[in-house]
Design a protein that fits this description.
Layout: H1 8-41, H2 61-69, H3 73-101, H4 105-124
């Protein structure tokens, strides 16, 4: 798969396609979920007197996937957000592979360090 890369332009082209595809997919999924949500709840009056965050089941991936399986509009919108957040992380991972193919070990190390920091922040809950 990666043996056909002959220059930096090929890797940059792949990374660009990855970003475009991720953003388009995330937008389409969120739009689809928004339409489902509006179809089911569009006539309800919002209550702005008290802030209610996302329900507990939509704050982690298993709950989101369960909601998507139940065709919940809010869960599908949340899946779109997850896809959007995963896109730049995949870009960093693909960049590391590209640098490895170019045998640029310093940039492979730096890119993997950035990826490790991102993953540690997500897994460790360091974002607040």
């Amino acid at each position: 798969m990666f043996s056909s890369f002959k220059s930096d332009k090929d890797v940059a082209s792949l990374v660009g396609k990855l970003l475009r595809t991720g953003v388009f997919t995330a937008s389409a999924v969120a739009l689809f979920g928004g339409l489902i949500y509006l179809f089911r709840h569009g006539g309800e009056l919002p209550d702005y007197h008290e802030f209610k965050g996302a329900p507990e089941n939509l704050r982690h991936l298993p709950g989101i996937f369960t909601g998507v399986g139940a065709f919940s509009g809010r869960a599908i919108i949340q899946l779109g957000v997850v896809i959007l957040l995963a896109t730049p992380i995949l870009r960093v991972a693909f960049s590391a592979v590209g640098f490895l193919l170019e045998k640029d070990l310093l940039y492979v190390f730096i890119t993997l360090l950035v990826l490790a920091i991102i993953v540690a922040g997500m897994v460790g809950g360091l974002g607040g």
